[in-house]
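Dear colleagues,

As part of the handover before I leave the project, I'm documenting each prediction I ran so the next person doesn't have to rerun anything. This entry is a single chain, and its sequence is reproduced below.
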Amino acid sequence: MTGRPPVAGLRWADNGSATLSGALLDLADRLDRRFRTLARRWDATDMRFPALIPAAALERIDYFRSFPHLVTFPACLDAVEDNLERFCAGDPVTADGQVRPSRLGPIRDVLTPAVCYHLYHHHTGARFAAPAYFTATGTCFRREDSYLPLERQWSFTMRELVCIGPAATTHLFLEQVRADVDTLVTELGLPSLWTVAADPFFRPSRNPKYLMQRIDPTKHELVFDDRLAIVSANLHHDHFGRAFDLTSTVDGAPVHTACVAFGLERWLAAIVHQHGPAPAGWPAVTGP
């Protein structure tokens, strides 16, 4: 969006976050309602999760060794009085906006990198007698080298649809959601194509998980304008089932999972790029 006219209702901060208002916020709300409508095909349970997730939950899936470059930690000062006094006596914030902390307290939580992690953690130890479907939303955080308004942000909004069940069920779920999404992007006039993708692992050439994704593609992205991924569709096999002790009551085996994630701000970016910055040119987003 660099060099394009300003978008009404968008205020950008250099720390990689956006404030939405007016018609742009209304468009975001209508898009999210439309994504929730897609979940009604499966009578999905709707959930909303907090910004924090326990570090112990992400350790179950080896997140920190896979994505240390993306992690954002909420840090607090050690609450011992002399430590707080040292902080106050110094320069808490420098002229260029950097915080100078004294000793930090223990860090046990992470700012959410993906909404579906909450879902698996929430159901730890659960037994499933039948396939289960969920949709959830939340603010996610991924630290990156650079940011771009609506397209690449440190904090952004994610809506996810998740299926938990047998392998065949998760495959069918992804197939149906992708077909529904294809209908939606056609309706909104957003030229997009599904492509094979891989997660942004740390040192990918040395990471066996990355190499496995290349051999057995489990991640596909819907890419707008040949450059911007606006949806990711992910097949996890029984990875999360094993990690969070999610099993089937039918055979006692770990369940399989699949998710489809919508980056809400990226959909706004796609619409603005394709139809212009003025609300009058934006397509109607209809639905219950």
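The radius of gyration is 21 Å. DSSP finds nine helices and 13 strands in the chain.

All the best with the project,
I.
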